[in-house]
Amino acid sequence: MRLAFILSEIGSGLRRNLSMVISVILVTFVSLSFIGGAALLQMQINQMKDYWYDKVQVSIFLCADNSGAQTCAAGAITDEQRSDIESMMDSPAVAPYVDSYQHETQAEALTHFQDQFENSPIVDTVTADQLPESFRVRLVDPEKYEVINELFSSMEGVDVVVDQRELLEQIFSIMNVASLVSLGIAGVMIVCAVLLVATTIRLSAFSRRRETGIMRLVGASKLVIQLPFVLEGVIAAVIGALLASGALWAVARYFIEGHLAQQYPGTAFIASSQVWVIAPGLVILGAVLAGIASMLTLRRYLKV
């Protein structure tokens, strides 16, 4: 009997404040979508780090005729200098740090450049003599870049030593900023959602003040009186969280997996199934925020 009463009160409250309930659902949907999007972006960043850091290389660019480094004062690298670099690479001092390395000629550098920028208008203006030859070094531990830099940057015939991780860190930094911006927007929207929940519960309590007064007189407990109001806000927030989870899954499934993963097969993208890892957290977060907002509002506007 008590359960039937509570359910009827919840249905009555939702019908009376339908427009406000829809507003709560929409604001919760938007705010939790931003939170979920930030979480997915962070998962993507971590996955890309694991993927790319495993493939990261150190590029030892060799001297060309137009190189300005002090180690290139004699001009383009000679065969003897190239052999010295290879000997250093195979030496006992360096070998423990190097997983593998390969020499890239200017012609090979041009081929790679044309593959990477095949759709760019500048691809036909670059010639092989404009690109430096290099050694591409894969390290056992990418964190040991400084060891390679110190050993090779001062060798004759070496123009510059470049750690590809520095380029990746710049990209990941931008993505981290985007994640923080998304969380900031989500925080503002959550405040709006909490205020809307509080307003909805307050209006619902005011419109049913006569019924709650009668319930007090007949000895109804505080829990029985307040529970329908709390559940109204929780139900609206949970619906918004479920919609946010569904929207995030659709983006991951049809945009990331269906488009980006096919356009860029060499990049490790997150899977749509990973959305379900964060979906329960979104539902719980929505329910908890709505429950807390409802309880605080009822303590002030519904004295029992």
From TrEMBL:
Residues spanning the membrane: 21-45, 177-203, 223-256, 276-298
Cellular component, GO annotation: plasma membrane
Record has Transmembrane helix as a keyword: yes
GO biological-process terms attached to the record: cell division
Domain ABC3 transporter permease C-terminal span(s) in chain numbering: 185-303
Keywords carried by this UniProt record: Cell cycle, Cell division, Cell membrane, Membrane, Transmembrane, Transmembrane helix
Coiled coil region boundaries: none
Bilayer topology: Multi-pass membrane protein
Chain ranges of the FtsX extracellular domain: 56-161
Main localization (coarse): membrane
Location relative to the cell: Cell membrane
Similarity section: Belongs to the ABC-4 integral membrane protein family. FtsX subfamily.
Subunit record text: Forms a membrane-associated complex with FtsE.
Function recorded in the entry: Part of the ABC transporter FtsEX involved in cellular division.
Matching NCBIfam families: FtsX_actino (NF038346)
Protein name, as recorded: Cell division protein FtsX
Organism: Zhihengliuella halotolerans
